[in-house]
Amino acid sequence: MLSSLLLAAALTGGPLADPAGVWPLAPTSVVRGFEAPPSPYAAGHRGVDLDGSAGQTVRSAVAGTITFAGSVAGRGVVVVSLGDGRRTTYEPVVADVVRGDEVTAGAPLGSLSGAGSHCAPSACLHWGLVDASSGSDVYLDPLSLLGVVRVRLLPWGGSADGAWSPAVSPVGASRPDALPWSAWRWTG
Description:
The protein has a domain at 21-35 and 45-149: Distorted Sandwich (Glucose Permease (Domain IIA)). Residues 1-17 and 163-188 have low confidence and may be disordered. The chain is built from 1 helix and 12 strands; from the N terminus they run αββββββββββββ. Strands 1, 2, 4, 5, 6, 8, 10, 11 and 12 form a 9-stranded antiparallel beta sheet that branches. 6% of the residues lie in helices and 31% in strands. Strand 5 (75-81) and strand 6 form a beta hairpin. With 188 residues, it is mostly beta strands.
């Protein structure tokens, strides 16, 4: 029954673009999800953090051209430009690629560095997606490259308008917002 609910919820979210991306780490799970900033200089989380291990191979999520592979603020960063104004970013990475290299989806970019990880003492990959086709940087959820969508399940007694009945709240929750990012896991 739960799988039917998940399928129904996914189907009501509208059609998905044809995703061509692959996970940059395998296996992995999302440690922290994307939080769009309300304005260019406001707080937000401009990407997703993927759980990993130092030394783990980092792969390009999409095909493109390496437009940067170097250090920024003491962290190794790799940028892959898709050729349509969008670019993906990966950090902290010890790069095996150089500027100008062409990569395919799934091609190795380098290895995950334990130094500079903002998930310390664990290692994680910060993976971002930026669209600059309009002339300014707009941060997007990189999981959209994979066709991953957030699914919202309504509780018994809830409604499509977001109303929530505290009488049926699970484990004392006052209002469920969405499936937590920590629930996403890929074991490919």
